[in-house]
């Protein structure tokens, strides 16, 4: 066993923040090595201690499937992907039905997810309607295109508790999004009182430990509500087809590393898509999905887990599931 890795793990477990070189060292260990499994075990122990052994189930309702002008090369909605050639939207009645179903199933948070083509005012109307059918005080989270401070305040006034918004790997190179605008949106959300959910994503086999470390440090500096590790589900006939996907075994080591590297102030550690290996390595936030998904080439996602499947996954990994509103969007 590499004792330098053990020392880094012990430093993180003790509550100290890791520096960039230490984070890179964790992310660079050989797959399936003793060091990799040590990181996974430490990530699980660390996240579990920070959260009293509880995990959360968050939910995703994709509201539209459109050829999106952001043209993110890893996304099925990208104009260049040619998967979705016309704009389609879930009817409000269907959105409310899905929201009610998730509410009854006991999810801890509800995400409303759109492409960049979804109208901002329409989204506010949907938020109000969804809030009206929920029987529990679960947070609504906006996963939408970049926005300014004025709109962030409108989201907050409409009853939105948080925003999922990240600087993605390859931002500005493999997307048409402006890197400064991504950061400005996160800062606007925080200024308006919205908690920001984060993840290091979408990870492919070509991404280096240096690239991942940069985004981990960015998440830490932005004081996000949670972070984690999400793998790319490579869409056919895109710029990433030649790379494919990383394994969930490798992602589990990243999940453990990110849990340790984000430190004790960022308690939550998410992963997507749901994976027992990542849950065992410290990922305590996973999503159930309905509607559209940027990782699916079908307008109705066939990849998404149900809430019950998420519960079963956590049970197999000996996590308790939190009962009530998410603690990360409080």
Architecture overview:
This protein is an alpha/beta fold and 330 residues long. The protein has a single domain, classed as TIM Barrel, CATH 3.20.20. The protein has helices at residues 3-13, 20-27, 34-50, 92-105, 120-133, 149-158, 179-191, 209-222, 248-262, 276-280, 307-316; strands spanning 54-62, 64-65, 88-89, 109-113, 140-143, 160-164, 195-197, 200-203, 226-231, 268-272, 285-291, 320-321. Strands 1, 4, 5, 6, 7, 11 and 12 form a seven-stranded parallel β-sheet that branches. Strands 8-9-10 form a three-stranded parallel β-sheet. Helix 8 (209-222) links the parallel strand 8 (200-203) and strand 9. The longest helix is centred in the first third of the chain and has 17 residues, at 34-50. InterPro entries: Aldolase_TIM, rSAM, rSAM_sf. It comes from Adlercreutzia faecimuris. Keywords: Iron, Iron-sulfur, Metal-binding, S-adenosyl-L-methionine. Residues 49-269 form the Radical SAM core domain. This is Radical SAM core domain-containing protein.
């Amino acid at each position: 066993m590499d004792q330098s890795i053990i020392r880094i793990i012990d430093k993180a477990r003790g509550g100290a923040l890791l520096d960039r070189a230490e984070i890179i060292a964790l992310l660079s260990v050989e797959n399936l090595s003793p060091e990799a499994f040590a990181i996974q075990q430490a990530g699980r122990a660390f996240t579990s201690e920070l959260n009293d052994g509880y995990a959360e189930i968050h939910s995703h309702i994709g509201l539209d499937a459109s050829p999106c002008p952001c043209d993110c090369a890893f996304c099925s909605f990208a104009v260049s992907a040619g998967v979705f050639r016309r704009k389609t939207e879930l009817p409000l009645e269907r959105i409310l039905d899905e929201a009610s179903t998730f509410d009854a199933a006991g999810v801890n948070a509800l995400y409303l997810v759109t492409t960049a083509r979804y109208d901002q005012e329409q989204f506010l109307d949907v938020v109000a309607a969804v809030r009206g059918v929920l029987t529990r005080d679960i947070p609504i989270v906006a996963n939408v295109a970049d926005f300014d401070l004025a709109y962030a305040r409108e989201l907050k006034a409409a009853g939105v508790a948080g925003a999922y918004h990240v600087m993605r790997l390859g931002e500005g190179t493999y997307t048409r999004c402006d890197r400064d605008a991504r950061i400005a949106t996160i800062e606007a959300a925080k200024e308006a009182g919205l908690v920001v959910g984060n993840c290091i994503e979408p990870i492919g086999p070509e991404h280096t430990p240096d690239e991942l470390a940069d985004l981990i440090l960015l998440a830490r500096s932005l004081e996000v509500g949670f972070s984690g590790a999400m793998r790319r589900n490579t869409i056919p006939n895109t710029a990433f087809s030649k790379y494919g996907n990383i394994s969930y075994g490798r992602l589990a080591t990243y999940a453990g590393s990110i849990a340790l590297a984000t430190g004790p102030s960022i308690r939550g550690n998410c992963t997507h898509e749901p994976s027992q290996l990542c849950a065992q390595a410290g990922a305590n936030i996973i999503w159930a999905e309905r509607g559209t998904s940027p990782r699916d080439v079908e307008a109705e996602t066939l990849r998404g887990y149900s809430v019950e499947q998420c519960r079963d996954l956590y049970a197999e990994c000996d996590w308790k599931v939190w009962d009530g509103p998410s603690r990360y969007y409080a």
